[in-house]
Amino acid sequence: MDRPETLDDSAARWRTAGDRIQTLLDSCAASGAAAQERARELVREVVGLYGAGLERIMLLAQEGSRDGPGPGLAERLATDDLVASLLLVHGLHPHDVHRRVSDALDRVRPYLGSHGGDVDLIGVDGDTVRLAFTGSCKSCPSSAVTLELAVQDAVRAAAPEVSSIEVVTAESASGPAVIPAESLLAHLHSTSPTWYPVPELAELEPGEVAGFLVSDTPLVVCRIGDLPLAYRDHCPVCDDSLAGARLRETLLGCPRCGTQFDVVHAGAGAGGTHLEPLPLLVRDGVPSVALAEPMGAPA
């Protein structure tokens, strides 16, 4: 019978990892300078990821010691996005798929609420997650796609082993579902969302409105309490920019035509008009915006 590997055995084995990595890099040189540089860049990215994860582990451990009794260190690590991603890679995460998906949905619920919606986890069957979207406001198609991207991102990040997301119809007490079930996740096969970190968003004060340029896309971002909300910088009424717009409670006024848009209800305006919302979530501790590009479009 094989002897179980001890901590000393594991440490000794990984002490030689640097030599093995260098040997592999040297072998890539046989394929040319470009191949060797790509291999070195891959190593740099992996080292950077694990370095950031170790730094986060130390910070969480130090915070735990200062705060005194509270959640155990293992739980703090398991619920940190960056550290959890490393635990998932190695199959070390202490929570099952149902718990991870449920926690992920809890984190995006405030954002879904800003569009008048919510989501229920019906169940997890193997590698399939079943969800029901609920709500009472009428949502525009662009808002539907925005919620799809936000939920998909949260579920995929928390449970990368999930291969499909199914949506069932759920009627709210006040009317039909916020997003028709047939439209949910229908656009994801034709779009490839890219998330862009925008750390400056963390500096927005409650009630403040600011403009940003992300991947050549002009955005207008409002902060309602603790919740930042992002929209494309375009007024659908006067077909102009929203630059200079001011926020009164939850209403964003176009400085050109004066139309008021309710930013906490998917940017709804008068006469069925609406702004185009964009997913804005905190990912790995950094506010990030998702822009959906057609599959095959240049990044």
TrEMBL record:
<keyword id="KW-0001">2Fe-2S</keyword>
<keyword id="KW-0411">Iron-sulfur</keyword>
<dbReference type="InterPro" id="IPR036922">
    <property type="entry name" value="Rieske_2Fe-2S_sf"/>
</dbReference>
<dbReference type="InterPro" id="IPR017941">
    <property type="entry name" value="Rieske_2Fe-2S"/>
</dbReference>
<dbReference type="Pfam" id="PF00355">
    <property type="entry name" value="Rieske"/>
</dbReference>
<dbReference type="Pfam" id="PF01106">
    <property type="entry name" value="NifU"/>
</dbReference>
<protein>
    <submittedName>
        <fullName>NifU family protein</fullName>
    </submittedName>
</protein>
<keyword id="KW-0479">Metal-binding</keyword>
<keyword id="KW-0408">Iron</keyword>
<comment type="function">
    <text>May be involved in the formation or repair of [Fe-S] clusters present in iron-sulfur proteins.</text>
</comment>
<feature type="domain" description="Rieske">
    <location>
        <begin position="195"/>
        <end position="289"/>
    </location>
</feature>
<dbReference type="InterPro" id="IPR034904">
    <property type="entry name" value="FSCA_dom_sf"/>
</dbReference>
<dbReference type="InterPro" id="IPR001075">
    <property type="entry name" value="NIF_FeS_clus_asmbl_NifU_C"/>
</dbReference>
